[in-house]
UniProtKB/TrEMBL annotation:
The keyword Protein transport does not apply. This is Molybdopterin oxidoreductase family protein. Keywords: 4Fe-4S, Iron, Iron-sulfur, Metal-binding, Oxidoreductase. Residues 2-58 form the 4Fe-4S Mo/W bis-MGD-type domain. The keyword Lipid metabolism does not apply. Pfam families: Molybdop_Fe4S4, Molybdopterin, Molydop_binding.
Length: 754
């Protein structure tokens, strides 16, 4: 018997609505949901491969527990007993920081990942927190924290209404967008052009997105902050800066002008390899456009000046009067945001409240750099304890973080490690206990994170499309039980975790004068909550307390879970609207244009005006049918253009004596890897490109398809020492490398594999 069910796609930030065909309890087909209020039927090849991914025979079906050195299948009871027995003695003997937590990217794509990890970290009281954010967007959080007082207040380009989009270090035609949730990003860019708007792309590679652009600037990797500073300088110098209605909300405009004085287009041109006239033109076009948005993504974050570049993106939006304006860059208002508090001074954003033990990296957003995880495990210092036990949820840092070989070794030395992961992969193979979540078809979906970054305010929720198979445990319950086992409450009913959150949240809300439930009885409110289980009750509570919520009856036509369930294709909440000054939480209550940590980092940028690496530098790239390190086991998504090859410009290939397809050895500070060369003028001269997430050739994994074409781990070229100092974000782009034809032996090995 065949039926259909709706499911929001968890595979990238676009959050497309899918219509799944279910036959005999298995997903057999995925199509775009044409009635979805946001995605309107869009689907990409990854979404279309949902059935293969969901049914992957290598997915773990039961927990694994290490027994005499080997991982064996176990019951859930045995697994959680082992977690409690493994973690508690470490925490009790060596203290809270000796238990580390690593949170990976899929946590922002699951309901469980949004609702439980904050409780886990708080419950453990550990400062040893490492997440994918520090190999990704931490610079943007830090710049938002400093500018707006809220690390999560990230302005989003108004794709559907802007007249001019300046896109820096992003390739949404392959990635489908990031920190800008927009199903059918490619179609929205085409619509921008169709309505007469202009698209400028800044990228060292001529990407598919760049090919769509009116203008492509092939900047030298790692120099966007200089380019943007010179653009801001031009606006200020030529009298083009006009923040308009933002002016009363700004602090430090004069100081900003002084701070950027040295960054003239002439001074920046050589370092960026963009001539001064072009820089001026970019600035003038931005100022002249009726509306414009500057949008920077991973290519502007994972570089030595990532925080400065992220800050300058918003400085340009502010100076041209486009921040918080339709057609510019606005702050979304999601349905589970806390009820907006009144505008006014806030507590501000603190940075570096503590430091990592070994290299003294400052914390950012309570996180330490993922680049420092290996040394925090394998290095003993006079001060504090190394990380001796690790909880890894949805992360594969052996491939996604710098120097996988060192981390691989470090993980093998831990007293105890637990992984919550559907696969036995390069990272989870080190775990003493692996707790596998069910496949996505058996999980509910709500986008807590991406709705705060969406180009349109909307709200959607999909329940599990297929009931849990026998022997499966929902990931929400896995994480609730993990919290209890890790914090000395092993054996407690996991629903206690949700009820505790509900009690605390409602208890706080009734005491908050701006809350719609101020003065009411929290017990009475808790009784009003609906939902099939704890996570749904928490969602109902967040919706009802949120900006569109029913306020538990205060606004009877407002949002609540029951209403959302009546709208399975979602509810549209309208276009983004101006919100300032309300989102500001700085101490001044204003946008702080030149925050002290930024000002203190500018001398480093000034030095970069005169720096230019001699040899080749490496950048990454994403392929449409890939996703970081974990989709290479799906045959439908591998092969074709999705291959781990080194892109090399024809001139560089000739100089180095390298032929197309020939195996080459790439050497960086952290090591060397071998990959076939792919000669293409899509990369600029002096730049080579290798995708990340490959290197599936370690023993003890169960990724049978991926192991057949393992590729090379680009992050082995890094040694973990190159960071953006303000955010602790890894430098993954613009890294110096040497490239040479591979020695015969390595070449044969590669040949045998491909
Ligand atoms: N050189 C280089 N390195 C990079 C990048 C780059 O551009 N260049 N990009 C960086 C970026 S942006 C990111 S976000 C990181 C990503 O790096 P990670 O956060 O390590 O994420 P993934 O590599 O996607 O691995 C995700 C893990 O989650 C598991 N998983 C999948 N679905 C689920 C689920 O539903 N529940 C649970 N519990 N687990 C699940 C997978 O099996 C896999 O083990 O990589 C970074 N690394
Ligand atoms: N198909 C697919 N989609 C994905 C992912 C995936 O792995 N595959 N990963 C998801 C994740 S976790 C994320 S964070 C997003 C990322 O989404 P995007 O930010 O769009 O990521 P990329 O496609 O890597 O595009 C980054 C671009 O920056 C360029 N670049 C490199 N260095 C520099 C530089 O110094 N300056 C400038 N201006 N550009 C530079 C690169 O050439 C590349 O084209 O994608 C998400 N979507
Ligand atoms: S664009 Fe992203 S969310 Fe949409 S179908 Fe593709 S992978 Fe899924
Ligand atoms: Mo990411």
């Amino acid at each position: 018997m065949s039926r259909t069910a709706l499911r929001i796609c968890p595979l990238c930030e676009a959050t497309c609505g899918l219509t799944l065909t279910i036959e005999d309890g298995r997903v057999t087909r995925a199509r775009g949901d044409r009635e979805d209020v946001f995605s309107k039927g869009f689907i990409c090849p990854k979404g279309a491969a949902f059935p293969e991914l969901d049914n992957d025979p290598d997915r773990l079906r039961t927990p694994l527990v290490r027994d005499g050195g080997e991982l064996r299948e176990a019951t859930w009871e045995e697994a959680f007993d082992a977690v409690a027995a493994g973690l508690r003695p470490v925490a009790e003997r060596y203290g809270a920081n000796s238990v580390g937590v690593v949170l990976g990217n899929p946590n922002v794509h699951t309901m469980a990942g949004a609702l439980y990890p904050p409780l886990l970290v708080a419950g453990l009281g550990t400062r040893s927190l490492f997440t994918a954010s520090t190999v990704d967007q931490m610079p943007k959080h830090v710049s938002s924290g400093l500018l707006f007082g809220d690390a999560n207040a990230i302005p989003v380009p108004d794709l559907d209404r802007t007249d001019h989009l300046l896109l820096i270090g992003a390739n949404p035609l392959e990635s489908n967008g990031s920190l800008c949730t927009a199903p059918d990003f490619p179609g929205r860019l085409k619509a921008l052009k169709a309505r007469g708007g202009t698209l400028t792309v800044v990228d060292p590679r001529r990407t598919r997105t760049a090919r769509l652009a009116d203008r492509h600037i092939a900047v030298r990797p790692g120099t966007d902050a200089l380019l943007l500073a010179a653009m801001a300088h031009t606006l200020l110098d030529e009298g083009l800066a006009d923040p308009g209605p933002l002016t009363p909300h700004l602090d430090g405009l004069g100081e900003l002008r002084d701070a950027l004085r040295d960054f003239t287009p002439e001074a920046a041109a050589a370092a960026c390899d963009v001539d001064a006239d072009t820089i001026r033109t970019l600035a003038r076009e931005l100022a002249a456009a009726p509306t414009a948005a500057v949008y920077g993504r991973i290519g502007s974050c994972t570089v030595p000046h990532g925080t400065l570049a992220s800050w300058l993106v918003d400085v340009l939006n502010i100076l041209t009067g486009n921040l918080d304006q339709p057609g510019g860059a606005l702050f979304p208002l999601s349905a589970t945001d806390k009820t907006p508090r009144p505008a006014g001074p806030g507590r501000g954003f603190a940075l570096g409240r503590w430091h990592s033990r070994v290299s003294r990296h400052p914390e950012a957003k309570s996180e330490l750099p993922l680049s420092a995880l290996a040394e925090e495990i394998d290095t003993v210092t006079d001060e504090g304890e190394p990380v001796r036990a690790l909880i890894v949820v949805a992360a594969n840092p052996v491939l996604s973080a710098p120097d996988g070989n060192r981390l691989d070794k470090a993980l093998g030395s831990l007293d105890f490690m637990v992984s919550v992961d559907p696969y036995l992969n390069e990272t989870s193979r080190h775990a003493h206990v692996v707790l596998p979540p069910p496949p996505p078809s058996q999980s509910p979906h709500y986008d807590f994170a991406f709705n705060t970054l969406a180009v349109r305010n909307q709200v959607r929720y999909t329940r599990p499309a297929v009931p849990l198979e026998p022997g499966r445990m929902a990931e929400t319950e896995i994480l609730a039980r993990l919290i209890l086992a890790a914090t000395g409450m092993h054996g407690t009913d996991p629903s206690a975790v949700d009820e505790m959150v509900i009690d605390q949240t409602l208890g706080k809300a009734v005491n908050d004068p701006v809350s719609p439930v101020h003065g009411r009885d929290p017990k009475e409110l808790a009784d009003l909550l609906t939902g099939a289980d704890g996570p749904e009750r928490r969602l109902d509570m967040m919706l009802r307390l949120g900006p569109y919520g029913d306020g538990f009856g205060a606004r009877p036509d407002g949002l609540r879970l029951a209403r959302l369930l009546e709208h399975p294709h979602g509810i549209d909440l309208g276009p983004l609207r101006p919100r300032l000054p309300q989102p500001l939480k700085t101490r001044s209550g204003k946008v702080e244009l030149l925050p002290a940590p930024i000002a203190a980092d500018l001398p480093r940028l000034r030095t970069a005006l005169h720096e230019r690496a001699e040899g080749l530098v490496l950048v990454g790239r994403r392929h449409l049918r890939s996703n970081n390190s974990w989709l290479h086991n799906v045959p439908a998504l591998t092969g074709g253009s999705n291959r781990c090859t080194l892109h090399l410009h024809p001139d560089d290939a000739e100089r180095l004596g390298i032929a197309d397809g020939q195996p080459v050895r790439i050497t960086g500070a952290g090591g060397a890897v071998t990959a076939p060369a792919e000669i293409t003028d899509a990369v600029r001269k002096g730049v080579v490109s290798l995708p990340h997430g490959w290197g599936h050739d370690r023993p003890g994994t169960r990724l049978r398809h991926a192991a057949g074409d393992p590729g090379a781990n680009v992050n082995q070229l890094l040694d973990g020492t190159r960071l953006d100092p303000l955010s602790g974000n890894a430098v993954l782009n613009g890294i110096p490398v040497e490239v040479a034809p591979a020695a015969a032996e390595a070449a044969e090995k590669l040949e045998a594999l491909t």
